[in-house]
Design goal:
Family: Belongs to the bacterial ring-hydroxylating dioxygenase beta subunit family.
Number of strands: 6
GO molecular function: oxidoreductase activity
Keywords: Oxidoreductase
Strand content: 35-45%
Order of helices and strands: HHEEHEEEE
Pfam family, one: Ring_hydroxyl_B
Mean pLDDT: 84
Radius of gyration: 17 Å
InterPro entries: NTF2-like_dom_sf, Rng_hydr_dOase-bsu
Shape: globular
């Protein structure tokens, strides 16, 4: 679900903001439906997906993220070949952690779209709330900030990179790769 309004479009026009917002609506719907076969093509060939390690520091002037340390550091190829394939009919019988599928919802809000400094690319920041339920377990929720780079292409937008900054230091989500 995509909520919220534009907060910062200093470098983009209304048409760009609207098309980016539509891209996120489509991406969110595909991920919520576990439709990775249609989600993977939204990723550019050089796509990088990272979730830095979050720590709680006593000194508020220090970053809450550990430089160079990632809970997740993936590429388009690793997501397509090592993760998304687990849900294909030929593999699902062996993907015990995916049966039954977890139910996830992503709530994306407070989009900020600015020029990324490279032709045809925009930088997008957003807030994300993810809820996940596996079997009859209680719902698990996590909040994060997302920083993406999108590239304009013939069919709309392609995702070049995504960095997710989790708000929590102790991760309770069952899977990080496809959840956020």
């Amino acid at each position: 679900m995509l909520t919220g309004e534009r907060i910062d479009v200093a470098d983009t026009d209304d048409a760009t903001f609207t098309s980016v917002r539509r891209f996120y609506g489509r991406e969110t719907a595909l991920l919520d439906a576990h439709d990775y076969a249609r989600w993977i093509p939204l990723l550019e060939p050089e796509f990088v997906y990272r979730i830095p390690v979050t720590v709680t520091r006593d000194d508020p002037s220090q970053s809450p993220f550990v430089a160079g340390a990632y809970l997740l550091d993936e590429s388009r190829d690793s997501l397509a070949n090592l993760w998304a394939r687990r849900l294909e009919p030929d593999h699902i019988d062996f993907s015990w952690g995916e049966v039954p599928l977890q139910r996830a919802r992503r709530f994306v809000s407070v989009l900020s779209v600015t020029d990324a400094g490279r032709t045809g690319e925009v930088a997008v920041t957003s807030n994300v709330l993810v809820t996940v339920v596996h079997q009859s377990d209680p719902v698990v929720m996590t909040a994060a900030g997302r920083h993406d780079i999108l590239r304009r292409r013939g069919d709309g937008w392609g995702l070049v990179e995504r960095t997710v900054h989790l708000d929590e230091s102790v991760v309770r989500l069952p899977h990080l790769r496809m959840v956020i």
